[in-house]
Design a protein that fits this description.
Blueprint: H1 5-12, H2 25-41, E1 45-51, E2 61-66, H3 70-86, E3 93-95, E4 102-106, E5 110-115, H4 117-123, H5 125-129, H6 131-140
Parallel strand pairs: 2-5
Antiparallel strand pairs: 1-2, 3-4, 4-5
């Protein structure tokens, strides 16, 4: 096959990454407990956990919580990262920790959203990912005619 090594690599496409081992349900429960405890210790309001298994490819669970001020949300995110590392989980990635209405924390198999009340209402992630939506869709489907 003619061409430079770079062209050959380009034609071959991206290398496939090895699949990461699936996190056990017990480890997910333990991670979720660390997350919820940390948020509750930092006075987060309306902490909700949503099971995403089989519904999303980016995570198995989602935790949503509300903080009243930018500073509280930033402190909750920093403290949560420290608690996860202390519990033996890998370091998390954060977006928006510099003082916004919404901080996203990617802890691997669990995604954490920290919102100010107005932003939480605006984005309505509980409605988007909650079980109520699945029930409403199945109820709204027309019955087959006989």
């Amino acid at each position: 096959m003619p061409g430079t090594p770079r062209k050959k690599a380009s034609i071959a496409g991206p290398r496939r990454k090895k699949a990461l081992p699936k996190t056990s349900a017990a480890e997910l429960d333990r991670m979720q407990a660390v997350i919820v405890t940390s948020l509750e210790d930092d006075k987060a309001e309306d902490v909700v956990a949503i099971d995403l298994a089989g519904r999303a490819s980016f995570a198995d669970r989602m935790v949503i919580a509300t903080g009243l001020a930018d500073r509280q949300i930033s402190a909750m995110a920093t403290h949560l990262n420290e608690q996860l590392v202390k519990a033996g989980f890998k370091k998390t990635r954060m977006e928006g920790a510099g003082g916004t209405d919404w901080v996203l924390i990617d802890a691997g198999d669990i995604i954490v959203h920290l919102f100010k009340p107005e932003s939480r209402t605006l984005y309505a992630l509980e409605k988007m990912w909650g079980a109520e939506l699945d029930e409403a869709v199945t109820e709204a489907e027309p019955e087959p005619e006989a």
